[in-house]
Specification:
Blueprint: E1 3-6, E2 9-11, E3 16-18, E4 20-24, E5 27-32, E6 42-45, E7 50-53, E8 55-60, E9 65-66, E10 69-70, H1 75-84, E11 87-95, H2 102-113, E12 120-126, H3 138-144, E13 148-152, H4 161-174, E14 177-181, H5 185-197, H6 204-208, H7 212-229, E15 233-235, H8 241-252, E16 257-261, H9 263-267, H10 290-302, E17 307-308, H11 317-320, H12 340-349, H13 355-369, E18 387-397, E19 416-426, E20 429-433, E21 436-437
Parallel strand pairs: 1-6, 2-7, 8-11, 11-12, 12-13, 13-14, 14-15, 15-16, 16-17
Antiparallel strand pairs: 1-4, 2-3, 4-5, 7-18, 9-10, 18-19, 19-20, 20-21
Helix pairs in contact: 7-8, 8-10, 12-13
The structure holds dihydropyrimidine-2,4(1H,3H)-dione and zinc ion (2 copies).
Amino acid sequence: MDKLFKGGKIVTATSIYKADVAVTGEKITLIGQNIKPDAETEVIDCRGKYVLPGAIDAHTHLAMPFGGTISTDDYETGTRSAACGGTTTVFDFALQDFGETFPDTVKRRDAIAAPQAVVDYSFHIGVKDLSDGIEDTMKDAVAMGVPSFKVFMVYDFGVTDGIFYRVLEKSKEVGALVAVHAENNEMVNYLTQKYIDEKKTSAWYHYMSRPEFVEGEADERAIQWAKNSGAALYIVHLANKQGMDAVTKARDEGYPIFAETCPQYLHFTRDVYKRPDGRNFVCSPPMKDKASQDALWAGIRRGDIQTVATDHCPFKKSEKNWGKKDFRLIPNGCAGIENMYPYMLSEANRGRISFSKAVELCSTNVAKIFGLAGKKGAIECGLDADIVVYDPKKNVTITNKEMHGATDHTVWEGVRVKGYPQAVFSRGNLVYKDGKFLGSKGAGRFVKCDPIKLTSPDLTGSK
Ligand code: DUC
Ligand code: ZN
Ligand code: ZN
């Protein structure tokens, strides 16, 4: 064996137990009590620490052209930042160009990602166009290992309900999963114009033009299409109570509806938009009221939210400033790729959820839902040695100065977390230790996901 993680507490989605973990090459090869190292084995002392699977961030926008610019982190800086927060795999969005087949979308983005990525990655394909036989190439993307498609109900690249429904129908045939950004586009446009006409232009009116019911109605509509099509649905960045209730009801009825939320919705409320720097928090959907935040935490505890991901899409302060006097000009998105796992584990360390729940949300369920079970997402023999050694006693106050991406500010500035990753390994290689990035550009690999067939709300039966 090459490495032996000795004396730590292993956290799985269902249990916590003391054991040693042996790694040979890129894989976890043995888990047991009192494993004896070979002469050449590197022993990693994990006494007093937790040994966790690396997080899998199901939702990032790296180097994405958006809002009149390009999101600040590219595949190198974004995945570097991910690694330093204990995230060892990212799912990034590859947005289709009009007329482009889905395999070509993946190839175009992979050509950018492959030489840069520091940790492993995969893609969701953002669908714009199904015309001229393009929909038939969904199966080819699945065969390439990208079985996940996302539709936007908003933005200039948003799709009609008809295209959304067609993607759902096709997804069943080809073994794919459809994810949705749900907000009501008409209402966003109407409310935006109304506030602009009334000369209400501060960041608060970003929230006011996309309030709870605008997201909630779209969640309900998306669920309605999924139920009728018989397809599974994954709602990204769920941020409101009405939508949470709709997800819960559909799942109780037995439909395979899944939901992701993000740390920013769990930690901040709409009040941030009243701050002088409110524009820095502008993302879509926006943070909502306290009742929504409470509903999300309750949904996590009940298991009606299955994943937590970041929607990492940072923009520079100067770019956020474009919208100082007009919220429409603020590029939408916030940083979070380095903060998700520390934040969720800190909430576990403080007792709000269990450590197993944090691991389930940030790693194990992501692997199960997106076709990576059997490769990643747990501390188990045969899986990639994506391992975080977590120090529950190290307290950190988050500051952008000590983050490892390319951002010049973060919404997480000043937030205190209890406990922090001490060391992070990607396929057995040390990529982070004690505040320092130790990985290398290009070391991350594209991971092929298995076809996805989710027919019930229950994930325990997944591979
Ligand atoms: N929302 C954001 O805030 N940024 C990126 C895309 C999105 O849907
Ligand atoms: Zn979105
Ligand atoms: Zn997003």
